[in-house]
């Protein structure tokens, strides 16, 4: 069974803290993605990566960075967390070829910044 | 600009009723993909269907069916004889051609509650 695993389901952090969200996939997918989900806004793409050490900005990259040192792992970093980054964060992966556009998602990490 | 609109924020029906989730999209592309994803309470979005804009045939999979109408830019999803396990948030999404998953645009989602 295909699997995307996010390291933490729930996190509570304080304003200004550095936050790491980890995501691992076991499907040998080339592409990996970080989305943010907020009520009424659907899913918005933060960053994606199509290869190791490669990254591309999505629609809302401000305040975030990412790291992809290994094919199976994609990390989202909040350098200095702020209250407006309280949200549900979803990691996803997909094949590079064939490029069907189908995404495989993790269960999400709900982050609260106080 | 590309856009996906799911006007129904929340729907609640009694078990065994049929329910239709609406999706209207905007795009200037002549070819594109449309998707439906389901997000159960566990949080993990699950892919349900992908439709190529060239293929306007309706699709049926068990109790699920999808109605794609290019003339009205709609891709509606119907659940027949709903069950409690169908309770979830459903997302419609649009992707331009040949760009893969990085350009998928999601609607805001419809929360479906099925009451026993």
Can you describe what's shown?
The complex is a heterodimer of chains A (114) and B (116). In chain A, the strands form two sheets. In chain A, strands 2, 4, 5, 6, 9, 10 and 11 form a seven-stranded mixed beta sheet that branches. Chain A has a four-stranded antiparallel beta sheet with strand order 1-3-8-7, with no helix packed on it. Chain A has 114 residues and is an all-beta fold. Chain A has no helices and eleven strands. Chain A has strands at residues 4-6, 10-13, 19-25, 31-38, 42-49, 56-57, 65-70, 73-78, 87-94, 104-105, 109-113. Chain A has one domain (4-113): Immunoglobulins (Immunoglobulin-like). In chain A, 37% of the residues are buried. Chain B is 0% helix and 51% strand. Chain B is globular and about 40 Å long. The chains are: A mainly beta (114), B mainly beta (116).
Keywords:
heterodimer, A: mainly beta, Immunoglobulin-like, four-stranded antiparallel beta sheet, B: Immunoglobulin-like, six-stranded mixed beta sheet
Q: How is this structure best summarized?
A:
By secondary structure, chain A is mainly beta. Chain A has strands at 4-6, 10-13, 19-25, 31-38, 42-49, 56-57, 65-70, 73-78, 87-94, 104-105, 109-113. In chain A, strands 2, 4, 5, 6, 9, 10 and 11 form a 7-stranded mixed β-sheet that branches. In chain A, strands 1-3-8-7 form a 4-stranded antiparallel β-sheet, with no helix packed on it.
